[in-house]
Fold these 2 entries.
Entry 1:
Amino acid sequence: MNTYRLRVKRQPDGVIETLIEDPGPERAGLALIAHPHPLHGGSLDNKVVWQIARSVLDLGYVAVRPNFRGVGASDGEYDHGVGETEDLLAVAAAVGAGFPGLAWTLFGFSFGAYVQHRVSRRLAAERLVMIGPAVSMYDFEPPPLRTDIVHGEADELIPLGIVRDYAERHGIALHVIPGGSHFLHGKLGELKQHLIRLLRPPD
């Protein structure tokens, strides 16, 4: 596996720090992974984001983890999801150019899920997977592509009932992790199992 960091240029100025983990020539696709809220410690090193990357790498995806603006070595300031959407689109354009013919799958955790649901309306992708989406905090529209939600049963920040209502309203598959908190303490192995089941091609 090759691991490297890019400083992706965005318009009109600034750069987005991006960690890329490439499993090698037998690639299954590209996975764009968005971290939780930047004003509450969210970064590409978040443990849930790290576990998403490990899961997709095991399935042969190139794992792409940017830091939103104002986080780590990324320039700029928090922009309520608007500028962060532009960040991810810039990263997808730059990284995708280096892997022609590979499709994107979008992953977002918490605030990152909100940003990715916005990205899904502008980027050609095969699938959107939202983990702990903050549907009680932000205005989530119906996703325009195949979507799955993975959510902790005991999420103390985003109640499961609100997420279930959103999922049922828009025909989204909901996968519940029993006893899981918002940050899935002690449940990262179960998260990985869910992601692998969702993404593994049928025999």
Entry 2:
Amino acid sequence: MTGARERAYLALGSNLGDRAAHLRQAREAIAALPETRILAASAVEETAPLGGMDQPAYLNQMLLVDTGLEPRALLQACQAIERRAGRVRAGRWSARTLDVDIVRFGHRTIAEPDLVIPHPGVADRDFWQRELAELEPHAR
């Protein structure tokens, strides 16, 4: 189901396997989604794992997309992209080949069990703040 076009911010992260390739493949898959195009991408940044977990460092990147998809459809598409990259949901903050999070979706606020927008982690993740600030000029 599609609706009015809105701008969304998607956070990409990977800390298993070929991290840069996982991010590249995610960008390509997101660009290929129906009624969706990438407007801008932040620089790729390496960060320590969240939650004090003993695991490899992450590569992270934020995308600004223009989409006609509704938030639930975008979430389902992002989860399908994660699965194609070999993502296994093993628990909060576990290591992963690919993570694709909807950080913001227009000016919407959504609070459902499996979809919260804006993402509840946005205020606590310095790297997301930097990436959002980098993309802000492209959002106008």
